[in-house]
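Quick one, probably user error.
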């Protein structure tokens, strides 16, 4: 039974936010050989190119994407929408508003992460979390959709989806790490169960 390869990607700091908790969590996880990690730029073209190159090279058994939001809890994102619709330009100065990510792609793609297991793991640790319909209209949703579409097109039936993390002022890094680690452990258990059952 081979060790499952789980990829985890977050985003670099952007704009007025000097610290991105998703980057901090990913850099902490990079020391663990069980995970393949990446920090993506907050730029449509460069983030997509880096993510797709990593997926094609590594072909992970699961992908957890992380980003920052302005709330106070860990957000479990249900759907990636085929829409770039932001009010701010990315780090390269590109503004996308009302633009399909892939003109011929489906309107939305569901997360294939075990979100119910994530919710249970966060509840067990008294960590604040919330359900969210979609990951917004900026880079978080963009890479979520690109990753899910890549998996669908390649026949890769892998767990793949997105979690939003709050600012460190709302939830300390240690608690965010605890929450993401708990979700990753739930993900690993699910992968191991699928492997034992031959799925």
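Nope, works fine. Designed sequence:
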């Amino acid at each position: 039974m081979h060790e499952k390869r789980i990829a985890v990607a977050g985003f670099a700091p952007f704009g007025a936010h000097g610290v991105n908790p998703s980057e901090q969590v990913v850099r902490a996880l990079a020391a663990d050989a069980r995970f393949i990690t990446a920090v993506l730029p907050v730029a449509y073209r460069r983030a997509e190119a880096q993510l797709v190159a990593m997926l094609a090279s590594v072909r992970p058994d699961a992908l957890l994407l992380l980003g920052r939001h302005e709330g106070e809890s860990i957000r479990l994102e249900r759907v990636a929408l085929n829409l770039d619709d932001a009010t701010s330009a990315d780090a390269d100065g590109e503004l996308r508003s009302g633009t399909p990510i892939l003109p011929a792609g489906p309107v939305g793609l569901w997360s294939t992460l075990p979100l119910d297991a994530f919710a249970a793991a966060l509840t067990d640790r008294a960590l604040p979390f919330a359900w969210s319909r979609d990951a917004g209209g900026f880079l978080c949703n963009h890479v979520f959709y690109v990753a899910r579409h890549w998996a669908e097109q390649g026949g890769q039936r892998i767990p793949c989806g997105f979690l939003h993390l709050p600012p460190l002022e709302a939830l300390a890094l240690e608690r965010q790490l605890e929450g993401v680690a708990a979700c990753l452990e739930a993900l690993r258990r699910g992968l191991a169960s699928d492997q034992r059952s031959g799925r």
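The chain has five helices and seven strands.
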